[in-house]
Specification:
2 copies of one chain form a homodimer. The first copy, chain A, is of the alpha/beta class and about 500 residues long. The first copy, chain A, contains 16 helices and 18 strands. In chain A, helix 6 packs across helix 13 and helix 7 packs parallel to helix 8. At the A-B interface, helix 1, helix 4, helix 5, helix 6 and helix 7 of A face helix 1, helix 4, helix 5, helix 6 and helix 7 of B.
């Protein structure tokens, strides 16, 4: 071990004193921890280019003051019991020179932001957390095979900087996948590989936002988007959603730089933006000069009808930026998503991405490219789509069994659905709390990875259920417990509201 | 394949007409490329929930107009020769509705930035590009073994969101490495894993910069840092460097949010910041409230003397943010670097990192953690340090052989050195151009991944040589060619400067 010590032969202190001070500084600063052996004096002397005697004398003084100890079997090491005097240091010692400034004025941070919730807040046994994957469905054996195959021909994969927009093979595979699947005319050079959808949003924010820029989001919206725009000090304008998706009539007539929306499966309500609104939204974008950020986070899972043509497929005015992710379809541990950009944004986005992080890690990109191009991705999608469909059906079935003709939205696709609570039920937040007492995680709009801006029609009456990570037995057991919680709530409420009368429910 | 088509039974157009228009839109928009087979009518009818006849009639019209073709062996597919009329579409067709807006007003981008150069601009046979790794030195077999070991116990590694600040095991391994190696008192919770040094800088910029914030950089400086700060519309204040590193006396007396510097091996000049200046810099930071960003990009390679104690190890006023990277010591294809933060910045940085990208990919982190913790990292460092030392010696030797007593800086550590050209030599840019004609890449301050702010004392007289990626034979051959180029230049200059006289050189 080489110690980070540097002596200055022309300094006003002796070499021995300098060495003593610096070693003491290391020990006090915990760079050298108690019990750590120090190098033999001969080695340290050689490293520093000083006489061995200088080191021996410095060690002796450190030992005399209690910083070092020597045992014949162990050699010399840092004392476990540092001397009291270690807290007092010489007037011209390093530690003292610095410690005077421990509390000092510091200019305030420029950054202002809230942390979004992407992991479930609790450790609940039956957790219907949103957008969560089932680890047992990850295609591990295929992945391992591809990893080894890619490592066989690693060449300079680990050692060279590459195109900051992503590995060519991956961008080509994504473009090939998107054309038929989403009806988009897209070439590989329009694609920028990003570290998940959140980084895609961040890159868009870097391109389009300054302080005070007006940004439209859905209300309720994806929390990670709303908090991000807020952190750029943009003026966020929430626009309501209804069962046909974003209320296009409520868009501001001018002045917005972009609108962020989730047209395939509105997050969190699950609505699909109607074709008629798609066309009007694109008209609005063309007229106002705003960009449309099409966040297509879970469109790989569609259970009924056809996939809708992406906004980007309909658009011919270069207004749409498409955002996709592999966090839901393969695994969030890959941290791979992508942007599809109109041509005029490619160059600025490439520059912004390079300044952001010089591009994505090589191995995961190379494996994912092979995974898609080999057809394994399609096979995997079919398999998990079938499983998620069964889980969705099981969830709907369980809810109907316990609560009758429940009103649900978002069931046609995705990994979660929304239950619109009927009259006479507790609020969504109350029901969430009651369920949590029984180790069941269900989520109101404010507690999921969603954000509502305060005057959202659905907030108190909607409960969100992610079903992708739970097997059917757990789904049934979880909903059973929610039903128990509700029965208990009705009984208590009945008792406490009319304590003196006989309760009709009994 | 499911086509992204969606029919509206309550629309004013017939289902057949809707289907025709949407399929034509797909073909024109290249969502369906020439030669692509369309689904059998029965399948598409089932997908759309319409009668088979509707699909047959739509296909017939598309065939009649030349969009589809049928061959008995191939089925029905998109025509290779689309009809001329495909460019004209009905007044109420989708394509036409949109195409009117192809050129339209678009608000200007918020982003303004220049792309930094991280890869060598040319493909030269003898390329002394800076900070470049030798692919043959990557520890591939160890890495493959660790990858497979980590995949054995992947569990939810690929499928769960994790701490946005990085995998605990990796942060702990980094902290354990830094304490003795750099004399820093650091705990794992102070570490944020980032996607390379550039992302670390970006995270710092997000935390500390707004438009107009004053930022100090070295002059000359690392290009990626200068361009990044510029892209945040900060006011960048260049401060000169000399052979003792950053000229601390030239720091602005107040008002800077941060100073970015490379104290171990100044980028690009190779100077080391003296201990005396380190102390004065920290005093300045404490007094002005500025942060010191210690960019320690290549300190793993030290060939002479001791590693200097990191600024963060000397600081006791929580002024220093330390930036490290594995891009030089393991491989840039990993895209892993890290920040070490003063405690009061941990929470805001965690939030900013989560809004930036929810954290780094799992597999590379898990493997790297194992690589460090197992001791393989230390072994690897020793091995490449020895190789780089041999290459450095070979480069110095070659330069001396050809050019005599050359003046070099930055030789004590790192992966590159700077040659201060003597009087009577061409400018650095000229020599670079002459060498490039002979397939040799050597770099002036303006062409390397460096940036000078226009009044830098070294710009025209300094040539940079990265030696880490070239073996000794190439180093010798490359320098030989530089010498040839210079001889040729002297001859030509002599001839053209005094054409009528006898040249003394002859």
């Amino acid at each position: 071990m080489e110690l980070p010590v540097s002596l200055d032969p022309s300094g006003r202190q002796s070499l021995q004193r300098q060495l003593f001070e610096q070693l003491r500084g290391l020990i006090l600063g915990a760079g050298l921890r108690p019990g750590t052996p120090v190098p033999p004096s001969r080695l340290l002397a050689r490293q520093l280019g000083v006489s061995r005697n200088t080191v021996v004398l410095a060690y002796e003084r450190l030992s005399a003051e209690g910083y070092l100890q020597t045992r014949s079997a162990l050699g010399t090491y840092v004392s476990h019991d540092l001397p009291d005097s270690s807290l007092r240091v010489d007037a011209d010692g390093i530690a003292d020179r610095m410690s005077a400034g421990r509390r000092f004025p510091r200019s305030s941070l420029a950054f202002r932001g809230r942390a979004q919730a992407v992991v479930s807040p609790g450790k609940l046994e039956f957790d219907f957390w949103l957008g969560r994957l089932d680890p047992t469905l990850f295609p591990l054996s295929t992945w391992r095979r591809l990893v080894n195959q890619v490592l066989e021909r690693a060449d300079s994969g680990f050692t060279e900087y590459r195109d900051p927009t992503g590995l060519f093979e991956l961008r080509a595979a994504i473009a090939d996948h998107l054309r038929p699947a989403r009806g988009m005319k897209v070439e590989s050079d329009q694609i920028i590989v990003v570290a998940g959808a959140q980084q895609g949003l961040n890159l868009i924010a870097r391109l389009l936002l300054r302080e005070g820029t007006r940004v439209v989001t859905e209300n309720p919206s994806y929390q990670g988007a709303a908090y991000l725009f807020e952190s750029y000090r943009a003026e966020v304008i929430p626009v309501p959603v209804d069962e046909n998706g974003l209320c296009v009539d409520a868009l501001p007539p001018a002045g917005a730089a972009l609108v962020h929306l989730t047209p395939s499966h509105q997050y969190p309500m699950g609505f699909t933006l109607s074709l008629e609104r798609r066309m009007r939204l694109l008209d609005w974008a063309r007229q106002t000069g705003a960009y449309v950020v099409e966040d297509d986070y879970d469109s790989d899972f569609r259970y009924r009808g056809s996939p809708l043509m992406a906004l980007m497929g309909l658009d011919q005015a270069e207004s749409v930026i498409y955002l996709g992710t592999f966090s839901k379809s393969v695994g969030t541990g890959l941290r791979v998503g992508y942007l599809v950009l109109p041509r005029h944004l490619i160059e600025p986005a490439r520059t912004a991405k390079a300044l952001l992080d010089n591009g994505h890690a090589w191995l995961d990109q190379a494996v994912l490219a092979e995974f898609i191009a080999s057809g394994a991705y399609d096979t995997h999608l079919r398999r998990i789509r079938r499983t998620y469909l069964e889980r969705r059906d099981c969830l709907i079935d369980s809810l109907r069994n316990h609560f009758g003709n429940v009103m649900l939205t978002g069931t046609d696709s995705g990994m979660h659905l929304a239950w619109h609570l009927p009259a006479g039920f507790p609020s969504a937040a109350e029901l969430q709390a009651l369920a949590a007492e029984r180790a069941v995680g269900v989520y109101s709009l404010r507690s999921g990875a969603a954000h509502d801006f305060g005057d959202c029609a659905y907030s108190d009456k909607t409960l969100l259920f992610g079903y992708s990570s739970l097997d059917e037995a757990r789904i049934r057991a979880g909903i059973e417990r929610v039903a128990d919680a509700l029965r208990e709530w009705k009984r208590t409420r009945c008792t406490s509201a009319r304590p003196a009368r006989t309760c009709a429910d009994r």
